[in-house]
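Message: Just now I want nothing more than another pair of eyes on a protein record. I am handing you a single protein, as its sequence and its fold in token form. As I understand it, each token names a local backbone shape. Take your time, and here it is.
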Amino acid sequence: MADSITTQANLSASKASIRSKLQEVWGYSDFRSPQAEIIEALLQKRDAIAILPTGGGKSLCFQLPALMQTGVTLVISPLVALMENQVQDLHQRQLPAALLHSELPKNQYRQTLWALENQRLRLLYLSPETLLSPKVWQVLCQPQQSINGLILDEAHCLTQWGETFRPAYFRLGAVRRSLLQHQPPGMQIPIAAFTATADQSVQQTIQHILHLQQPYLVRLNPYRANLHLTVNIAWTPQQRKQKLLNFIRVRTGQSGLVYVRTRQDSEDLSTWLSQAGFQTAAYHAGLPAQERRTIEQGWLQGTLQFVVCTSAFGMGVNKENVRWIVHFQVPALLSEYIQEVGRAGRDGKPAEALALISEPTGWLDPSDKQRSQFFADQIRKHHQTVLELAPKLPTQGDVASVSKQFKQGAIALSLLHSMGCLEWTDPFHYVITQKPSLSKLSKAHTTAPQQMHRYLHTKSCRWQFLLNAFGTASEPQNFRCGHCDNCKP
């Protein structure tokens, strides 16, 4: 009985200290649900998967526990722009955080490595490739390093194939085991995966690849009653432009985003809209860091009404009064779509999301079909690569040697891992355990684009479709939201 009372007292003290830190650093009096529960799980050294809608306050869930512990929390992030935004915010709060990526000036890179080596950081943001680079890995494996957590931000990137595929993600499951070999006995390094979208299949993939141990799962419904969804057919390329122009013209002064899929399209469309008199700019990952920051600030402050952007824009950029999102070109994956539309209407006021698509045959405007075909071709190339390379790969070896010997070697190793044919003994060395076959290739690689196509052409409630797709439907099958184009009277 006494032990129970003591445990309760410690738990209450812990909750009080967590709220005190929230007030001290962020100025908030309390958490949104379920932030407190996630923070407590991480402080208790539990693995976690947190699926919170865009704007749900994911970053605070791992930043706060990192600040309440000694040692460093490693935050693995897919985009430089996303890292820069979060670290800039932490610096403004006078917090010990830094980032490492290949675009950093050499002196800044060295300074950050020195700060890491001398235990001056609480949060270090880096890509999976940078985490597994020799210089960084060597510092992390030093015995004096105290690593209190591994955070995977935008964890759905683990499951993305095609042109954006990054093989280093598949080696992350061996990171914890390897780091613990250099830590004192009894040390624990929890792993937490955060994303806005993950269906049951994606959750299982994340848990499998990261080797999560009985993870604490939090999954919030992505439904937003204030967000109106519309899909509109544009019969020709010129009509697509005209529909976009008409949509923006009647929303004078309202903040928005126009999504395209390529850097060149963002440049071309932005130039055309600027000539039409709009305050806008093109944004993509190929721009210099300072130019990206300038565009972000212009949009946040309202000097730019909207930005014509690729998927590189929006992650970690917090703006509540976005009234509309236009997908001038739709993404290949439904998970990308729901993340991007979720950037509108965070303030709870009405917002709109318009997707422009070609007519079903694609005769008059084949661009959508061509993009979809390109995505499918990329996946097929990956699959063909692994089947051709597998017999040539050493049964055991290291990724650096294989990458030097075979152009697509790292991709082949990752695909073998996803098929259950390979195990990583550490983040750099592998053992092939069985031969691959076509039957082992994941259906998710080929069905994901089909899911997006079904959403765009469904005649039923669009929100019901999304809720079913992401396994969070709590409404009856005949549910009609009343504010998508298929439900409006």
User: Anything to note?
Assistant: The radius of gyration is 23 Å. The longest helix spans residues 2-26.
